[in-house]
Amino acid sequence: MTVDALTDVTGLRVGHATRGGDGWLTGTTVVLAPEGGMVAAVDVRGGGPGTKETDALDPRNVVAKIDAVVLTGGSAYGLDAASGVMAWLEERGRGVPVGTEPAHVVPVVPAACVFDLGRGGDFRARPDATTGRAAVEAAAATAPGAPVAEGCVGAGTGAVAGGLKGGVGTASTVLDSGITVAALVVANAAGSVVDPETGALYGELSQGRVEYPEERVHRAARDRLAELAAGSAPPLNTTLAVVATDAALSKAQAQKLAGTAHDGIARAVRPVHLLHDGDTVFALSTGERPLDAHPLALNPVLAAAADLVTRAIVRAVRAAESTEGPGGVWPSYGELYGRG
Question: What is the pTM (predicted TM-score) of this model?
Answer without folding.
Answer: 0.97
